[in-house]
Amino acid sequence: VSKLSLKYTDGSYLAEFLLEKGYEVHGIVRRSSSFNTGRIEHLYKNPQAHIEGNMKLHYGDLTDSTCLVKIINEVKPTEIYNLGAQSHVKISFDLAEYTADVDGVGTLRLLDAIKTCGLINSVKFYQASTSELFGKVQEIPQKETTPFYPRSPYGAAKLYAYWIVVNFREAYNLFAVNGILFNHESPRRGANFVTRKISRSVAKIHLGQLDCFSLGNLDAKRDWGHARDYVEAMWLMLQTDEPEDFVIATGEVHSVREFVEKSFKHIGKTIVWEGKNENEVGRCKETGKIHVTVNHKYYRPTEVDFLQGDCTKARQKLNWKPRVTFDELVREMVDADVELMKNNPNA
What we know:
The two termini are 35 Å apart. The protein has 347 residues and is an alpha/beta fold. The chain is built from ten helices and 15 strands. A hairpin with a 5-residue loop joins strand 14 and strand 15.
């Protein structure tokens, strides 16, 4: 049996991965007045009627310790993947207390629930840590031993979660690991994350549904991989003999600007940049139309300029490596959004 808390993208890819391996998957889903299971619809035994097969969903929340104890006691899982979080960095500045409660204390509630249910010796626990822990980077590239310097309420909350996982591992001998995952994207990424915002907007421009869109810091550089590759690494971390923390990354760095250029290139447009800072625009070389502008409201109060992971340890100990290239990732996201917008311009 496996149980997971469903996060934006990863929960759906992880559920697929585990179901293929023959697991019974239990997911925690928050109650919402609008449907929030879109990314896992296809995993139901009967998607139309929401009839469950080997994937079972439970209503719950990382802010409610009683429900976590109840679910864990009922399911008695062998593996727990904590992917639940308020995971938007920019929004964490506006929802700092909530982010701390869910991402930081929520992880403690889950660990305490394992202890309360007497499962310390039988369960393996995966914590979704993040490259945002490195923030203002102290060395390049970043690896497991690089000092942390978070630059957002999200990063600070995840820092608490990281260390409380280490503490449970050392204090109670729980098999608990932190996966320090660098940015991982996919067509299932939330619409207000920069990569998905770009692929959606480029698709709409391609279909004549949009003329122009705004971004924040075009020169932020990230190590971008595909979520499908990264969920395999999560699983591999729980199959080792000894619990250890791992950095998962591609080792390649690309700027937001580059993501924009590659996305437009895929639909046959060449973007030429004009102006400086907030007055910079991206113009289509072929038509002369401005498609990209910069808006200061999308900047973070404290920026993370550069992230590049070194996953040597994962390559050696887990025999893991990324399969999807940056170019393939961009193409897949743009193609998926072109299809989506074709069928529903309001999507």
